[in-house]
């Protein structure tokens, strides 16, 4: 119980501090590991999980797949940064408990969305490509451009935006654009619509998000 309370406090403080404690300041600091290397390793790690479960209909494999993807993503995704941007002004009005609750609910929806989107790409090849905006990259925001190539040669663009965290000494994903679909914008729009629908009731908004996540899980087969 003590460990759980400590974890709850750490998550709460992180959310309250938003981006400040996670991203490095703009200075002459040079990360020891290139963002591109970190991103391609992360994508490949997810694809390795996909290959393990691809086509399996065994009971429990779907949940096991999601749990393994979640383990891979946990150190790679800047969840608190993403959540702070999604909540926007609502973050200022939220209690500590509401912030922690939405963080946990969002993690599940993020894992489900990312895992579901990657499920069909186990046999695909992922390559780094040069981006048109590489000169604008900073430790606060670096855009890593990728190409996902099907066995038939079809190419799908993917862009992962990452920032460098000195706390973990690695790059953290803060957005993904796949084949023109901006995941960050999609999540932000979804939150804003639910928040308006529930007249600024944050608890109701989080519950609605949780219900949508459950419904998506029940209806999606990752096929």
Automatic annotation (TrEMBL):
Annotated InterPro entries: MlaC/ttg2D (IPR008869), Tgt2/MlaC_sf (IPR042245)
Cytoplasm as UniProt keyword: no
Protein name: Phospholipid transport system substrate-binding protein
Keyword vocabulary terms for this entry: Signal
Species: Saccharospirillum salsuginis
The keyword Signal appears for this protein: yes
Signal peptide range in chain numbering: 1-25
Gene3D superfamilies registered for this protein in UniProt: Tgt2/MlaC
Recorded superkingdom: Bacteria
One Pfam family here: MlaC
